[in-house]
């Protein structure tokens, strides 16, 4: 049991266009069973008892979201996302900073609909061990190769301490906002919240998460997500 309950606000970057999916709509609006990828993701975050609000960052021309029942949820706040995922997260962090400056931000990709309440709880509870913040991650299981530009193996990479970064990623919102904003201003390559914290010299914790918490990115990920959702 955590010894210092804190205000937790989920941030869902959902302003992407899903170019790698190649669908006729942004991938977060593709159906997984009875509802869209984004709807599944939001329902899970709404259901977690420690998450007080859910901020979704949407594409400025998004005309799908208002059709989701989830768009009317009392916990939901909408903000306009930016050109990159990090810009969308920062837009949501700006809202948190101005309304709940002492909150913790739990940032979770819209495109990861298979996340479980148990994994979210384990990440939240991990701050007793990692007060600087932490992320869900999956240890690498395969032999890892580095290639050259023409697709030839250059070398085998030691996988002993390699992890796949997942989401949610969980940090004090005001600190994350400060470091993410500074990292972007410095044009640092930021692809997740942890990389912004690392850029600022923070060493986030790693919490081992389920490997079925996949990011739906390419067409073949859809059937995988359907399978995983059916088994939860
Ligand atoms: N400017 C952006 C780009 C991405 N995202 C979100 O960040 C998450 C992870 O990004 P990714 O899987 O790369 O989604 P897309 O950017 O939509 O995919 P692609 O790179 O294939 O276009 C997704 O939920 C996506 O909606 C966002 O909020 N704002
Ligand atoms: C945040 C993330 O899902 C962690 O693995 C990943 O970095 C998102 O990368 P993308 O290129 O924006 O999909």
Characterization of the model:
By secondary structure, this protein is an alpha/beta fold. The protein has a single domain (8-231), classed as Spore Coat Polysaccharide Biosynthesis Protein SpsA, Chain A (Alpha-Beta Complex), CATH 3.90.550.10. The chain contains 6 helices and 11 strands. It has helices spanning 37-47, 85-99, 117-125, 173-185, 193-199, 219-231; strands spanning 8-14, 31-32, 35-36, 51-58, 76-80, 104-107, 134-139, 144-147, 153-157, 163-172, 205-208. The strands form 3 sheets. Strands 5-4-1-6-10-7-11 form a 7-stranded mixed beta sheet, sandwiched between helices. It has a two-stranded antiparallel sheet with strand order 2-3. The chain has a two-stranded antiparallel ribbon with strand order 8-9. A hairpin with a 2-residue loop joins strand 2 (31-32) and strand 3. Helix 2 crosses helix 4 and helix 4 (173-185) crosses helix 5 (193-199). The chain is globular, with a radius of gyration of 17 Å. The two termini are 25 Å apart. The ligand C[C@](O)(CO)[C@H](O)COP(=O)(O)O binds at residues 85, 109, 165-167, 191-192, 215. Catalyzes the formation of 4-diphosphocytidyl-2-C-methyl-D-erythritol from CTP and 2-C-methyl-D-erythritol 4-phosphate (MEP). It is an enzyme of class 2 (transferase). Its EC number is 2.7.7.60. The record marks 20, 27 as: Transition state stabilizer.
């Amino acid at each position: 049991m955590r010894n210092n309950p804190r205000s937790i606000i989920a941030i869902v970057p959902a302003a992407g266009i899903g170019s790698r999916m190649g669908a006729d709509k942004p991938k977060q609006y593709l159906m997984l069973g009875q509802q869209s990828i984004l709807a599944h993701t939001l329902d899970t975050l709404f259901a977690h008892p420690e998450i007080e609000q859910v901020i979704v960052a949407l594409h400025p021309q998004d005309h799908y979201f208002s059709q989701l029942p989830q768009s009317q949820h009392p916990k939901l706040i909408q903000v306009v996302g930016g050109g990159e995922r990090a810009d969308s997260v920062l837009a949501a962090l700006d809202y948190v900073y101005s309304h709940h400056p002492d909150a913790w931000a739990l940032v979770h990709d819209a495109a990861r609909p298979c996340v479980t309440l148990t994994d979210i709880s384990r990440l939240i509870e991990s701050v007793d061990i990692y007060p600087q913040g932490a992320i869900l991650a999956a240890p690498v299981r395969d032999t890892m190769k580095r290639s050259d530009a023409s697709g030839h193996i250059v070398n085998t990479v030691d996988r002993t301490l390699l992890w796949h970064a997942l989401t949610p990623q969980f940090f004090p919102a005001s600190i994350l906002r400060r470091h993410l904003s500074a990292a972007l201003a410095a044009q640092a390559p930021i692809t997740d919240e942890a990389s912004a914290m690392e850029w600022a010299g923070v060493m986030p914790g790693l919490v081992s998460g389920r490997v079925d918490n996949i990011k739906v990115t390419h067409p073949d990920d859809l059937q995988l997500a359907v399978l995983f959702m059916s088994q939860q």
